[in-house]
Amino acid sequence: MRKLFLAAGATIAFASAAFAIPAINPAIRPAASELNAAQIEQVQFRFGGHRHCWYARGWNGPGWYWCGYSHKRNSGWGGPEGWNNWRHR
Fold first, then answer.
1. 9 vs 46 pLDDT, higher one
2. 14 pLDDT more than 70
3. How do the domains of the chain map onto residue ranges?
């Protein structure tokens, strides 16, 4: 009997959560439909007008680079772990 009540409660919670999800604004729907998760970069910090991302294998070793610049030699290097007191996960 307890399992039945737990299953019913979970079903009700799931159904009510589905209705709580906001609809996508029609103005941004075309952009949202073209979004490709493979093209999204994780931006961790901003500094000096540039987005910085952690790369374990960049051209200057592990460290902070401008996002997308990890293999563009002599460009985008920020610093090693600890630069600006930043830590990567």
1. 46
2. no
3. 42-89
- Looking at residue 29, its pLDDT comes to 62
Positive or negative, the Cα torsion across 51, 52, 57, 60?
positive
| Secondary structure (DSSP) of 25-86 | PTTTHHHHHH--GGG-----EEETTEEEEEETT-BTBSEEEETT-TTSTTSSEEESTTGGG-
One-letter-per-residue 3-state SS of 11-30: HHHHHHHHHHCCCCCCCCHH
The structure's pTM equals 0.51
Name every residue whose Cβ is closer than 8 Å to that of residue 10 and which is 6 or more positions away in sequence. Answer: none
